[in-house]
Amino acid sequence: MSVGDVRGDVAPGRGQRLRSIIGGSAGNLVEWYDWYVYSAFTLYFAPVFFPSDDPTAQLLSAAAVFAVGFIMRPIGAWIMGVYADRRGRKAGLVVSVTLMCAGSLLIAVTPGYSRIGVAAPALLVVARLMQGLSVGGEYGASATYLSEMAGRRHRGFYSSFQYVTLISGQLIALSVLLLLQGVLPVKDLEAWGWRIPFAIGGVLAIAVFYLRRGLTETASFKVAQKKGGPASSGWLLLREHPREAATVAAMTAGGTLAFYAYSTYMQKFLVNTSGFSRESATEITTAALLVYMLAQPVAGALSDRVGRKPLLVGFGIGGVALTWVIFKSLETVSSSFLAFLLVLGGLLIVTGYTAINAVVKAELFPAHIRALGVSLPYAIANALFGGTAEYVALWFKSRGLESGFYIYVTVMIGVSLAVYLRMPETRDRSRIQED
User: 188-207: b or e for each residue (b if 16 or more CB lie within 10 Å)?
Assistant: First the structure.
C-alpha cells in the first residue's frame, strides 16, 4: 500500500489540523513551564535544600541537580521515542505530561534540609529525574506531532510553535516569579512562596493530561502503522540512520548550549556578574524572552520560503562572531535597557536555530523511526551541553576564569556551524510524506 493510497483517508482537514496544533502546543507550554520553574526560582529555594554561606556554592549545587535532570533526558527520549513510534505520538504526549505532573508536585511538598536533612536534596533529585524523563520524551513526541500535523507548505511556521510554547512556559514561570516578588516579602518567598509555582505546574499538568487524551493522531503515524515495517528501536536507529542521528546530535550541540546560556543562565549571570538585583534581572530576562518568543514564528515562516539551511548558517556565523562581545559587554553594563538589548541580541541570533530545529530533525527521518530519531540524539547532545551550561559557567566563574565560558560557547557554535554548512536542505528533501 502506497502513502498516496492511505493519505486521503487519514489526512486531517484544515480545521482539525489547526485544533490539533493548538492542543499540542498548549500541552507543550505547560510541560516547559514545569521544567523552567526550577531554574526561575533557584535563587530562592537553593538555600532551603543546600545550606551554605556562599551563594555561588548554593547555585552550583542547584545547577548540579538541574544537570541531573538532563541526564535522564536521553533515557526518556529513548523509552518514549520508541513508545511514540510504536503506540502513537498522542500516547507519548500523555505519558510525558503525567511524569512532569508527579515531579512538580513532589518538589512542591518536599520539606527543606533543616527538617529532613539529606533526604531533602535527595527527593529534589528524584523529582528532577522524573521531570527529565518527561522532557526527554516530550521533545521528540511534540516535535514529531507538530511537524507531521503542520502540512508541507507551512511546516516551518507551525512547527516553530514548539519553541513559542517552550519560551511561553519559561515566560510564565518568570511572570509568576515577578508576581510573587511583588506581593510577598523576600523572607516569605524564600521560606515557602517558591513552592507555589511548582504546585501550579502540577495542577496545570493534570488539566493537560485530559486535553492530550483528546488529540487527533497524525496521518504520518497512521500511514506507517498501515504499511507495517520494522518496529522502532535504538538498534534500528543506529543501524539504518547513523548519519541522520549524528547530524541531529551535532547540530544540537551549539544551538542548545547557546539557548541555555542566553535564557536560563542569563538570569543568574545578571545578578552574580553584572550586579543587577534579582528583581531587575528577572525583568530584563522576561522582556528579552518575550520579544524572542514572537520572533520564532517569523523565522519559521521565513524558512518555508527560503529554506531551513540559511537560518541555521546565520545562527552559526552570528554566534561565532558575537558571543564573546555580548557576554563581555554584559559584564560591565549598568543600564537595564542596554542589558536588555544585549540579551535580546543574543537570543535573536539563537532564533536561527530554535525556530526550525524541530522541523529540520523531523524531516530527516521516516515515520516509523521519527520520534526516536528526533529525540534521542537531541537529548544526548542536550544533556551534554544544554544541561551542563549553568554548571560549567558557574565553575569557570568560581575559578576566576569566567571568560572561559564565552570561549566554550563560541567553539561549540562553531562545531555546529560546520555541520550546518555540510547538511542538505531538508525543506526540499523532507521525509514527512503527507501534504
Answer: ebbbebbbbbbebbbebbee
